[in-house]
Write a structure and sequence with these properties.
The chain has 115 residues and is mainly beta. The chain contains 1 helix and 6 strands, in the order ββββββα. A hairpin with a 3-residue loop joins strand 2 and strand 3.
Length: 115
């Protein structure tokens, strides 16, 4: 069953991510985690990771498109093991306006060629 609300763009490569947890005592930033970006939409990301990411973990992710780094922030909403890696879904909290516009244009242009 398809639950996605937004169209996705797939296979954009390897990205670097920092996960952090905010609490009343401050913010803890962990070491970078290398993850693969499976797909992206205006509302979220699909990623693969070699480590399990707990639900509600907040990630800051740098996505390079057209030689520009775009940093998005999202929360893990699900993570499941598949073979030797984990597939995870993130709900985006923040996306730079330039990346949002790029994705909207990409989605619009992909519709031109769909039946």
């Amino acid at each position: 069953m398809e639950r996605r609300r937004e169209k996705r763009i797939e296979k954009l490569g390897v990205i670097e991510s920092f996960n952090f947890h905010a609490s009343h005592q401050g913010v803890v930033i962990n070491s970078p985690v290398e993850i693969s970006l499976v797909d992206i939409s205006i509302g979220g990301l699909g990623i693969k990771s070699n480590v399990k990411l707990e639900n509600d973990t907040t990630l800051s992710i740098a996505i390079e498109l057209e030689e520009t780094n775009h940093v998005v922030i999202g929360k893990i909403v699900w993570c499941s093991k598949e073979d030797h890696y984990f597939n995870c879904g993130l709900k985006l909290i923040y996306m730079p306006p330039e990346l949002h516009d790029f994705l909207e244009d990409a989605m619009e242009n992909s519709n031109k060629y769909m039946n």
